[in-house]
Amino acid sequence: MVNPRVKEVYPNRDYTIKIVFDNGEEKLFDVTPYLDKGIFRELKDKNLFNTVKPFLGSIQWKNGQDFCPDTLYIDGKSLTMG
């Protein structure tokens, strides 16, 4: 079975992102643990962090940072009842 893909994404002030998946589920994904790793360090800049957008079923930032959609779905904290 294939996990759902990202339909919408919204950045939050605390370096989390709210994600709406194509099955209607909403999850909160915490980017904080990644902010000291490689290219993700750039996302400490709030202006860059806020450039996140849906991209090919996942998400991507202006400078090319991205996450696997399965990681977002599996590690995201559910915001919807179900």
What can be said about this structure in brief?
The protein is an alpha+beta fold and 82 residues long. It has two helices and seven strands; from the N terminus they run E-E-E-H-E-E-E-H-E.
| Category from helices, strands and their pairing | alpha+beta
Major sheet details: 4 strands, antiparallel
The CATH class name reads Alpha Beta
Q: What is the oligomer described by this structure?
A: single chain
Annotated CATH topology? NE0471 N-terminal domain-like
Radius of gyration: 12 Å
- Order of helical and strand elements: EEEHEEEHE
Spatial arrangement of strands, main beta sheet? 1-2-3-7
- The coarse silhouette is globular
Q: What is the CATH superfamily label? A: NE0471-like N-terminal domain
Q: Helical amount among residues, as a percent range?
A: 10-25%
Ends apart, CA distance between termini: 18 Å
The tally of structural domains comes to 1
Q: Beta-strand percentage?
A: 25-35%
Question: Mean of the pLDDT scores?
Answer: 95
Descriptive notes:
The protein is α+β, with helices and mostly antiparallel strands. It has a single domain (6-78), classed as NE0471 N-terminal domain-like, CATH 3.30.2020.10. It has 2 helices and 7 strands; from the N terminus they run βββαβββαβ. Strand 1 (6-11) and strand 2 form a beta hairpin. The model has no long low-confidence stretch (mean pLDDT 95).
Descriptors:
82 residues; NE0471 N-terminal domain-like; 4-stranded antiparallel sheet; 2 helices; 13% helix; globular
